Amino acid sequence: KVRGGGDYYLISRTLGIEFGGALGLVLFLAQSVSIAFYCIGFGEAVTTITAGKIPEQIIAGIAVLFLFALAWVGADLATKFQYVVMAFLIMALGSFYVGGISGWETRTLIGNWAPPGSWSGFWILFAVFFPAVTGFTQGVSMSGDLKDPGKSLPAGTFSAVLLSIAVYISVGVVFAGANSLDTLASDYAAMNRTAKWGWMIDAGVIAATLSSAMASF
């Protein structure tokens, strides 16, 4: 029977209190550190938009306090906040797909199958990509607020994983069909330039970092 407690509860009740305690401590530390990372990412995005007028550390600190207050009030308000975040993410992806497909060239896609002359290495790419695929545990973290967690968690988690795979693969293909290999390897603002409305990508980054930080709280 699934009750409150999220990841820790499931691990400790399934594998026993020894594994639960050991993994629970690591999970707690990882979630705590990730809040700081996500809020710094949010601060960097806002600093870029405001041309550096406000230091990113101050923005990150304000974000931490805001999200703490939101989590303190309760999961209901936090859940409503996530719907707003999801709307921004959908708009950002929609803008990217519209812009990328309109600028699509099949010969560019074929040319990008060639390996790049140099690349950053596996671990740097892993460090960039890994935080982007940990969000599917958010439903597990809110198991105490679900009406039927035993049914909803497996269906929701697997659906989230499958949807994420579809989005990541399609984004990679659209990227490769609308941009040269050199651009993809060196231009960190390539998504803004590819999108129909670049400001939506900035809004999506802000929404994604706040959403992830909220989930960790």
Radius of gyration: 19 Å
The topology string of helices and strands comes to: HHHHHHHHHHH
What is the share of helical residues? over 70%
Q: Provide a count of the helices.
A: 11
Instruction: Give unreliable regions as ranges.
Output: none
Structural class: mainly alpha
Mean pLDDT: 84
Largest sheet: none
> Span between N and C termini?
24 Å
Number of strands: 0
Bulk shape = globular
Relative strand content: under 5%
What would the keywords be for this entry?
mainly alpha
Please provide a written account of the structure.
The chain is mainly alpha-helical. Helices cover 77% and strands 0% of the residues. The chain has helices at residues 6-15, 17-49, 56-73, 75-102, 106-111, 122-129, 138-141, 149-178, 181-186, 190-194, 198-216. Helix 1 runs antiparallel to helix 2, helix 2 runs antiparallel to helix 11 (198-216) and helix 3 packs across helix 4. The two termini are 24 Å apart. The model has no long low-confidence stretch (mean pLDDT 84).
Topology:
Layout (H helix, E strand, L loop, with lengths): L5 H10 L1 H33 L6 H18 L1 H28 L3 H6 L10 H8 L8 H4 L7 H30 L2 H6 L3 H5 L3 H19 L1
Give me a quick take on this structure:
With 217 residues, this protein is an all-alpha fold. The chain is 77% helix and 0% strand. The chain starts with 5 loop residues before the first helix and ends with a helix.
